[in-house]
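Appendix B: complex inputs.
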Amino acid sequence: MPIIDQQTLVRSVDILATGILVTAFLIISSKSLTFYVRLFAFQSILLGMLSLVIAVRYGETHILTAAVLTFVVKAFTIPLLLNKVIDRIRVRKEVDFSINITVSLIICGAIVILSNSVAQPILQVQRAGSLFTTKVLPISIAVMLIGLFVMISRKKAVTQIIGLLTMENGLFLSGLSITHGMPLIVEVGIFFDILVAALILGLFVFRINKSFETIDIAAMRSLRH
Amino acid sequence: MIFIPRKRLASDSALKVAEAGKNVGFILSCLGSVAGLLLSFSIFLSGQSLHLELPQTTPLGAMAFTVDQLSAFFLGTASFLGAAISLYSLGYTSEYFHKRHVGLFIFLYNTLFLTLVALLSAANFVFFLFAWEVMSFTIYFLIVFEHDDEASRRAGFLYVVMSHVGTAILTGMILVFFVQAGSFDFAALRSNAHQITPTLKSVIFLCSFIGFGVKAGIVPLHIWLPEAHPATPSNISALMSGVIIKTGIYGIVRVSFDLLGTGPMWWGILVLAVAVVSAVLGVLYALMEHDLKRLLAYHSIENIGIILMGVGAALVFNSTGNKTVAALALIAGLYHVLNHATFKGLLFLGAGSVVRATHTRNIEELGGLAKKLPYTSFFFLIGAVAISALPPLNGFISEWLTFQALLLGFTTADLTVKLAIPVTVALLALTGALAAACFVKAYGITFLGLPRSNAADKAKESPRSMLVAMGILALGCVVLGIFPGIALSALNPLSASLLGASMTNEVSLVGPTMILSASPSTSIAPALMLALLAGFAGLPIVAGILMGGKLRTRIAKTWVCGIETLRPRMQYTATGFSKPIRLIFSSIYRARHEIEISEDVSPYFKTEIRYEVTMEHIFEEKLYKPAMRGILSVARFGRRIQTGHIQSYLAYIFIVLIILLWATG
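Resulting structure:
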């Protein structure tokens, strides 16, 4: 006898997934670097909770492991690391935009609609299998694309990292929704990957700041020649 | 099958070890070449082809070799020249010690031979292309071997670009072939060729002509040749000019005669047209050249033109049904391949000897070398006589056969052929005459007269191994000229297997030294000619002695119009010698003269006169420069998307992703 029944599962998963999408939008609309990091931590907590619910419902231990790893790595370690980087390099805490917030939000809205239409054919194949994916898959695709969009439209190197991590969250979410989570070894690999990526990128931010006296990556244009 | 051992040297710190290693390396490659020569002889004698398949297979086909008569002929040519050049290299590379990496050179040299053998004996296109590419790269490294020279690097770059364009086109040809006939294998392609539609056959032919033409150096794809030949060490130039560019001819003959069979007549007309342009332009540019090796490089273009005249004529007559004349034309072309390899190899080795002794390639700074380098000078003279198509040496025989084939083909009813042939014949005659003029210049300015520079004055004869190598090739020129029957009787079954017809209906061989044509007035006997020439030269002397004259040498001063001493500066220059030809062909050369005269007190006392002439190379100006500008402007346009912003690159990914999602969703 499962602890959570199917209806509770679907409802709670929907709420959490929507929460993840909302945090993605908040990232787009925020102006402060530290707030970026906090939003990302919050998004990761939501993601961890989501996978926890699924793990409990289906009694899958490897999703449980993934959920724990999400809390430890994404919700705690990486934000801590990024905050440290932001403190150490002592730059302006404001985010620089190449596309302003209003336009960004409109574009992200369009992304959500596109993701929804893209997900439909996949859902038609999947519908028989699991029930909670109808809303989660479009959201996960949208979160991935929004993460990429963050990387495009925000200029600070730290925001690039946040964008990348957001993309990864979307990827994890889509993995969960379609396949009940990827095999544990893959998940662990990915966690290790992004941890290292965050470390290395953090280091890069240091170096970029040192060499260019700014972490605005537009300055790296001078490397072209 | 021959395997050529490679010898690598660790370093040239221990000179003796290095010297021994060098000797081992080159002697082994010489032995390998002799083995190759024996192999091709045995195939010609037995009339059977050799097939060998290595146990390793690649996903695209087996590593299989087939040496049939066509392969054997080119292999034999390569081995003959290779043996001589390996011998030559023994002495030639000794000056590289302490300056260059000799071990690397030997490695590249032997790799070049290995790929050459693999290329000529490959039994399928995959393996062929593989060998082709490895060979191209090996040549690149040999061109830039003297890499501290800016010109070498430039030549290497030009070569790589041209060679890759050629390979790309060849790859296209091979793929069309594969799609149409379902195999990469030569044997399978040969039997399936009839399934290919005429249009695609023509596509394949054109691709092969362009792709192989780059390597062969036909005009207008020749531009890499005059840059690459002077840049490489001379033994490699000899190999390149003698053998490597012939792999292009091998490819063209292999594809158009062996694999595709009979094609439409315009193939042959196209080849003839390109051949004529190559021959005439090659020799005209050679005449204006004062760099000894560049001059020889332009002559390679000319001779590729002469070879292709034979091949083109064979294509034409094959399609009009005159199979026997086609056989004769093909034999003439192939015989010229062998002859050109021999005399051009000899000339490049001679040039190498001159460059080694004087460290300059500019013939305006040479002169009087006949006294300093007597053997080199003599061998160079033999090569020069042969390339000028003077009887009784080998160049004459193959050009004579080409004339015969063209004139015999005149009986063809087709009007295009009737128009094309007299033009080809006339221009071939012009080419021969101009080549003779060019070598009068090259030999005369380089070896005769007084030394024009200190370097030429101090020149010393080359080591014995180099002289022996040149001697072998010089002997080859004489033997191939006086006894053409040896090679021709071997070539006859080869053309018979390719065209299904023998040349013996048109010309017949009587013994090794007599060629009988259909009409007695055009028959030829080179040995008799030699005897007559010797006789005519000897007759006056004998007559003089008989009439009571005495043989004695008189030494007297040259009459110098009253000037006290003769100085080297008073001699005829190469520029001056070629002036009449520059005037006659001024529309082709588009030469620009520049004369600078500095005067002293009055215009009657000139202190210094400088004369400079520059030429415009039509194809470089009118074809390559606009093409290059076009490519550059496209690239500049494309560069606009390379902003250097990370965000824009991410945005490209994003946009493509969105489009893909949208298109598939």
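The interface with chain A takes residues 642-647, 650-651, 653-654, 657-658, 661-662, 664-665 of chain B (CB under 8 Å).
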